[in-house]
């Protein structure tokens, strides 16, 4: 492993472990998962990955985001018992996102046109 990987590994670095704990605590307060923070308008690969997910998973993501915005506007957090049930680092997007990025890289290597492009109004 390289220096950077060791530095960012929470099991080997105290500061990385503290950061991971702080992120977990913040995500649990609002009932979010880490993958919910990806913005489909920022990266078209994320948008494509979200389009490939089952409808139930996307609906659950949207519901978590709406609940988090509602709690934030009310300056409130989830109740403690619900915070303990949250799984902020259970991924639902990473596998499909990696597949989309590999497909895009392969298309670029073959010289094919991109599957999706940003629409400029």
From TrEMBL:
UniProt key word Electron transport: yes
Annotated keywords: Electron transport, Membrane, Mitochondrion, Mitochondrion inner membrane, Respiratory chain, Transport
Membrane topology: Peripheral membrane protein
Cellular compartments annotated: Mitochondrion inner membrane
Principal location class: mitochondrion
Claim: Ribonucleoprotein is one of the keywords in the record: no
GO CC terms: mitochondrial inner membrane; respiratory chain complex III
A GO biological-process term: mitochondrial electron transport, ubiquinol to cytochrome c
Primary role: Component of the ubiquinol-cytochrome c oxidoreductase, a multisubunit transmembrane complex that is part of the mitochondrial electron transport chain which drives oxidative phosphorylation.
UniProt family annotation: Belongs to the UQCRB/QCR7 family.
Name of this protein: Cytochrome b-c1 complex subunit 7
Species: Dillenia turbinata
């Amino acid at each position: 492993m390289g220096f950077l990987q060791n530095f960012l590994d929470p099991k080997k670095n105290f500061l990385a472990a503290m950061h991971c704990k702080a992120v977990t605590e913040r995500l649990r307060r609002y009932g979010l998962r880490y993958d919910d923070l990806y913005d489909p308008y920022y990266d078209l690969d994320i948008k494509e990955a979200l389009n490939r997910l089952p409808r139930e998973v996307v609906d659950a993501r949207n519901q978590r985001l709406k609940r988090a915005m509602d709690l934030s506007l009310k300056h409130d957090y989830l109740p403690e018992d619900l915070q303990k049930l949250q799984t902020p680092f259970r991924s639902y997007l990473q596998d499909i996102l990696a597949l989309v990025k590999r497909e895009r890289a392969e298309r670029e290597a073959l010289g094919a046109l991109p599957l999706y492009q940003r629409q400029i109004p």
